[in-house]
Automatic annotation (TrEMBL):
<dbReference type="InterPro" id="IPR036390">
    <property type="entry name" value="WH_DNA-bd_sf"/>
</dbReference>
<keyword id="KW-0238">DNA-binding</keyword>
<protein>
    <submittedName>
        <fullName>BlaI/MecI/CopY family transcriptional regulator</fullName>
    </submittedName>
</protein>
<dbReference type="GO" id="GO:0003677">
    <property type="term" value="F:DNA binding"/>
</dbReference>
<keyword id="KW-0804">Transcription</keyword>
<dbReference type="Pfam" id="PF03965">
    <property type="entry name" value="Penicillinase_R"/>
</dbReference>
<comment type="similarity">
    <text>Belongs to the BlaI transcriptional regulatory family.</text>
</comment>
<keyword id="KW-0805">Transcription regulation</keyword>
<dbReference type="InterPro" id="IPR005650">
    <property type="entry name" value="BlaI_family"/>
</dbReference>
<dbReference type="GO" id="GO:0045892">
    <property type="term" value="P:negative regulation of DNA-templated transcription"/>
</dbReference>
<dbReference type="InterPro" id="IPR036388">
    <property type="entry name" value="WH-like_DNA-bd_sf"/>
</dbReference>
Amino acid sequence: MGTRTPGHGPKRPNGAREAEILELLQRADGALTPREVTERLGSELTYNSVVTILTRMHTKQLLTRTPRGRAYAYAPVTDDPGFAARRMRSVLEERSDRQDVLARFADGLSTTDADLLRQLLDPDQ
């Protein structure tokens, strides 16, 4: 389980922290500054840790940022389904055998999902 550092929240993998912050930003009404993110997280992370995580997420193109006063305000580049689609596209783009990968993916779909995919690919069907 996570270890505890004095004065800080439990130690968790960066991916878990990123997911937590991404979810927080997706629920927000608009872009948030690191200070606002830190406040909404409570005492789990220090301000500097939040800035570091937000900066890394921006570098990974998960977040946009716009100047707000002396800081940046961060917002997700897309919603949760959009991130899932990006991950799927990323996996596909890493492969040279795209046809085989897509065929295996399609073979594994339920009848309901296959019908939905057909409708999405050909809405006039």
